[in-house]
Specification:
This protein is of the alpha+beta class. It is 36% helix and 18% strand. It has a domain of 260 residues: DD-peptidase/beta-lactamase superfamily (Beta-lactamase), CATH 3.40.710.10. The N and C termini lie far apart (82 Å).
């Protein structure tokens, strides 16, 4: 009897393992089957199947990728191929955010029951039309001119991403053999717009300003004094080139990008209120673009000294953001505090595509109140009207913007930023551009790229 009982227990145990394993497999098959079917090691991608057919187009119908009988054909234009790499993806699937990797099911018409078997003679994979204009991508790529960085342009009223470029890049039709060994390609598989974690420099003062609006009632009636530096905890916090800005109101302090003023404000508000405000603005959270999950930014002053807290309010210390986060935040400011969620897919057609899944604008959760958004808009408009000048944006009206220089130490090692939006609803563009490993400031490095992108977007407006 004892032996029978032991055998029964063992049998029950193995049945339990079998049922558990089968359940796990069926769950994974149901949720990941499309991805399994389209892995490069499967035969249908090497041309032995006739069912893995699909197309990726830009917003104007320009073909970026065609998959026919498993064979991939990219655009005829080398600059289009390189500038849209991080959107379209690569053949090996190393770029996880690329359309051909992230949207395999939509692209190939994979079905959970039939897989890629052609049970319907007329069955076709999908055509994915993106919101991006490949001409704008080419322009941004040319303007980056071999430098590492990223550029993103959106319509803040609809959430459509019109341009998304990340560098370094490569030609997916002719990938170099030393991609994983040549240091010049470091980070090439990362789409910095979505997944970058970059020091923001003074663009972070937008977030510190939002915190100050909510926590310092007399912000606009105060005056601030700067002699070029202050000493906190025995260590200096300095303005660029130790420039003494003198006596200013808050709008002037922002327009002059006074590090001393913003460090003082962060220290005055303290760790808890700074972290609470930044968290409410979504920096330490992910967001999605048509199901693609972004990287989180980083703001953590839990163990910071007062000196480090001051530098965090300036956009240094351990602060990190992505261009995608910044353009989403600025889009929320333009839209009264609430973002239209970013999207890269305009529509998807195909025999097995669920109608209405893509291409529908979606309003996100509010990042700030309407009153906070309006004050930020006023301050950022003042940056342009009293600082940079409207000529910087080639006549695009009502631009609200902030430059930044994330200092990483050493020569030629800055992040040059320019972020902002046009408040004119006839040109509802939000932008974020960063140029890495530069000795120049954001206005010098990112500024000309933004100018050209805005000009082209206005000229080619739908």
């Amino acid at each position: 009897m004892k032996t029978t009982g032991k055998r029964s227990a063992f049998l029950f145990f193995f049945i339990l393992i079998f049922v558990g394993g089968l359940s796990f497999f069926l769950f994974e098959y149901g949720t990941e089957g499309g991805k399994w079917a389209m892995q490069p090691y499967n035969a249908h991608l090497s041309g032995t199947s006739t069912t893995a057919n699909g197309t990726v187009e830009d917003r104007n119908g320009v073909t970026l990728l065609k998959i026919q009988n498993g064979k991939r054909t990219y655009s005829d234009d080398r600059l289009v191929r390189k500038s849209t790499l991080h959107l379209v993806g690569d053949t090996n699937g190393d770029i996880s955010t690329g359309v051909q990797n992230a949207f395999k099911t939509e692209l190939t018409g994979y079905n959970i029951v039939t897989g890629l078997a052609d049970v319907k003679a007329a069955k076709q994979g999908g055509t994915i039309r993106l919101t991006v204009d490949s001409d704008l991508n080419k322009l941004a790529y040319r303007e980056l001119d071999g430098r590492k960085g990223a550029a993103v342009l959106t319509n803040w009223k609809t959430g459509e991403v019109l341009c998304m470029v990340s560098t370094p890049t490569f030609d997916p039709a002719n990938p170099p053999s030393d991609l994983k060994t040549n240091s010049s390609y470091n980070g090439v598989f990362v789409n910095k717009v979505i997944s970058g974690q970059l020091t923001p420099g003074s663009t972070f003062k937008i977030l510190t300003t939002a915190a100050a609006i909510q926590n310092i009632p007399d912000l606009d009636s105060r005056t601030f004094y700067c002699n070029g530096s202050i000493v906190v905890d025995g260590n200096p916090i300095t303005c660029v080139n130790h420039e003494a800005h003198g006596t200013m109101n808050f709008q002037q302090a922002l327009a002059k990008s006074c590090n001393v003023t913003f460090a003082k404000l962060a220290i005055e508000m303290g760790k808890n209120r700074m972290e609470s405000a930044v968290n409410a603005l979504g920096l330490n959270s992910t967001y999605t673009i048509d199901g693609l999950v972004s990287a989180k930014g980083h703001y953590d002053v839990t163990n910071a000294s007062n000196n480090q807290l001051g530098w965090s309010g300036v956009g240094q210390y351990t602060d990190q953001v992505s261009p995608g986060y910044m353009v989403r935040l600025l889009g929320a400011v333009a839209n009264g505090g609430t973002p239209e969620e970013l999207r890269i897919i305009q529509n998807v057609s195909g025999d097995l595509v669920t109608p209405g899944k893509y291409g529908i604008p979606k309003t996100g959760q509010a990042l700030m109140s309407q009153s906070v958004a309006q004050r930020l808009k006023t301050y950022l408009r003042g940056d342009v009207s009293t600082g940079y000048g409207d000529d910087m944006f080639n006549g695009v009206k009502e631009v609200c913007a902030k430059t930044g220089t994330g200092e990483l130490g050493g020569e030629h090692n800055n992040n040059g930023w320019l972020v902002g939006f046009s408040a004119d609803e006839s040109t509802p563009y939000a932008f974020a551009v960063v140029v890495q490993q530069t000795a120049g400031y954001g206005s010098q490095t990112a500024g000309p790229i933004v100018r050209e992108l805005l000009s082209a977007a206005v000229a080619n407006k739908d």
